[in-house]
């Protein structure tokens, strides 16, 4: 749990989806540690995350939310404004990488549609619901979580996931340009592999982990806090002149042609 020692997001009302676990939860903790009032929106119960943040002196609330449902979005945005008075930041973090997601031949359309619904439509609905509120109050910040796979192809494919993250990145750029003169900034955060439940599910055995690890120039998986620090930067005024960009935090993967050997 981070120390409550910062003010980079002092009194900012921040809505983070998928924040009951994984990267979103650590981002929620980090945002709260920087003074934000955090709304945790997830399909899962976020009570434990709220408790932990509150115990450490931060401010957080939670609501069960399905990012694929427009009604759910309307409710959670309303609850955030009721609770914290406004909405300064939305971090569209909820996402899935489904087992059965493979190459284009093997992947079922069911997997494709579920992935696109959660990762792409969920992000679009977040922007669709939050942007009018942000315009009313004169601006705001959108952080969309894509992935390094929005920039690179992998020979161990997850075609639906990769396509979904490419779409999130492209959508972020367009939103950024559309609202650039109306006070809204939008950037994509592109993490490399971090051992959250999402990735652990995929890389269950040592061989699968090692196959991924050797492609990371730093020779290790990332830590969720290392991604959360990037999210704080994008959400805060520190990135005030930055919009439509992709912040890649990946241990060097996207910079590499070959990787060092151990
Ligand atoms: N872990 C990685 O290596 C990695 C790398 C690049 C990008 N990402 C992205 O980071 C984001 C977070 O991933 P993570 O690794 O923390 O995964 P995770 O599985 O640990 O957490 C994802 C959270 O999203 C929630 N969620 C799923 N579907 C939802 C829905 N329909 N409505 C609301 N909430 C929903 C889950 O309940 C869960 O709490 C995802 O967008 C993922 O694609 C992760």
Q: How many domains make up the coordinates?
A: 1
Strand order of the largest sheet: 3-2-1-4-5-6-7
Number of helix segments?
Answer: 8
The H/E string reads EHEHEHEHEHEHHHE
CATH H-level superfamily = NAD(P)-binding Rossmann-like Domain
Question: Any descriptors?
Answer:
binds nicotinamide-adenine-dinucleotide; single chain; alpha/beta; 262 residues
Would you kindly provide a brief summary of this structure?
This protein has 262 residues and is an alpha/beta fold.
Protein described:
It is a single chain. This protein is 42% helix and 15% strand. By secondary structure, it is α/β, with parallel strands linked by helices. A seven-stranded parallel β-sheet has the order 3-2-1-4-5-6-7, with helices on both faces. Helix 1 packs across helix 8, helix 3 runs parallel beside helix 4 (109-136) and helix 4 runs parallel beside helix 5 (159-179). The longest helix is centred in the middle third of the chain and has 28 residues, at 109-136. The two termini are 32 Å apart. The protein binds nicotinamide-adenine-dinucleotide.
Chain-wise SSE layout:
Elements: E1 13-17, H1 22-33, E2 37-42, H2 47-55, E3 59-64, H3 70-84, E4 89-92, H4 109-136, E5 140-145, H5 159-179, E6 184-191, H6 197-202, H7 206-213, H8 224-235, E7 246-249
Parallel strand pairs: 1-2, 1-4, 2-3, 4-5, 5-6, 6-7
This protein binds nicotinamide-adenine-dinucleotide.
